[in-house]
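Subject: Gfo/Idh/MocA family oxidoreductase

B.,
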Amino acid sequence: MTVRIGIIGIGQQGSMYSSVVAHGKLMGNDIGTVEGMELGAVCDISLERKTWAEENIPNVPFFTDYIEMMDSGLVDAVLVVVPHYLHPEMSIEAMKRDLHVLCDKPAGVYTKQVKEMNEFAATKPELKFAMMFNQRMNPLYIKLKEIMDSGVIGEIRRTNWMITTWWRPEGYYQMSEWRATWGGEGGGVLINQAPHQIDLWQWLCGMPTKVLAKASYGSQRNIAVEDDVTALVEYANGATGSFITCVHDLMGTDRFEILGDKGKIVVDGSKKITLKVLNESEKEISKNLSFDDMKQLFMGGGIGDRVTETTFEFADQWGIQHKDVMRNFADAITNGAELVAHGSEGINALSITNAMHLSSWLGEEVSLPIDEDLYFAKLQEKIDEEAAKKAN
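Prediction pasted inline below.
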């Protein structure tokens, strides 16, 4: 069986997916087509995108109404690549028609909405429901997941991720009216650029229980939403973490550190893992260290044979991972393969994002799960303020 995928939304991202499925091309480079999948139809409300489709995928049916595409009989599954607020709504409509769903990130804008999608998906267990968390197919993060699951660094004490490689010029925000708005996108760097890293953070280290965030809104770009965020989190075991991101660092940093009681992991540039494992836990070393060893350590002697260091390096495979998620999705439909990221997992990263927003709005620490009604009310205030400003 070949899965006929219908892509809803063929803007910048959707057109990339269309080209990969139809031609095996990504930004002009040959990466091979998606095994077990073909492009059944595409949909977009823009006549400009219709022209693009006629020129680039001329034999693929084009629809301007996604319901008509779903009811056409031309597709077995859909890939939802539209503004974020529409992700849950369109995913539910597809599942109502017994179509499998692959949803682009984020799962939605607010968890209350995404819960409705997850609850409906649970009534359709025969359907495959997946998230496009392509970074989970990055060989580096597959290896990192393996290391974390092995427990080799022991219990987590601290996690820190600085990911500021999202530089966007002012013109980027003028590309679409919905972009970087509360009413159209539901946020800024947290909801648009950083969801993959927030998903990886919780996938690898678990969900935090408390969040305290400082966010700057339109500080360096002429936008209403957040363009710079520093967040502190606490985990159930008392461990702490931080997440720092922005869109105005032209030189950018991508550094992820995970400290455990038996070791430490440092990821640089999403290309290199440095794993340091202690021969016994830090607590045991602290308790049993002799005076002479302590003296040597304080005098710069280092920890020497108490630690084993291993490095793993990986080539950049951007784009291949998107293809791999689609291949996995097709394999799950036809052969029952386990999904890389089940659709219900999309709420985890979004919960952290919502908590960061709410904490910054209230100016205080918030606990997870957050008060969803309060979050929605505050979000609606932002949307109303934005609309009033535009009207004036």
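The chain has a mean pLDDT of 95.

T.
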